[in-house]
């Protein structure tokens, strides 16, 4: 059985969980997140991959006509790969 970890900040017990392909240790008290250096590198690579093809999208402006109505609001988007993991 794995040894129970304690938070280096507040000395409370920490629980481990999988977030995507990474194991994250989270404090039950202060909610601090801790992970191994290799796991951090994996998150950095995933974040880079997420943004690789997400440049600004420029669409042509439509021709304005009197019968036009405002478009519906755009759906909310995530700003990063890591943000998608912690919802």
Task: Please explain how this structure is put together.
- By secondary structure, the chain is of the alpha+beta class.
- The protein has a domain at 1-39.
- The protein is 24% helix and 16% strand.
- The chain has two helices and three strands, in the order βββαα.
- The chain has helices spanning 37-52, 81-85, and strands at 14-19, 22-27, 33-34.
- Strands 1-2-3 form a three-stranded antiparallel sheet.
- The chain is elongated and about 70 Å long.
- The protein starts with 13 loop residues before the first strand and ends with a helix.
Compute the average pLDDT. 81
Structural class: alpha+beta
Radius of gyration: 21 Å
Number of strands: 3
Separation, N- and C-terminal Cα atoms: 29 Å
- The helix fraction, in percent, is 10-25%
Number of helices: 2
Features:
three-stranded antiparallel beta sheet, 87 residues, alpha+beta
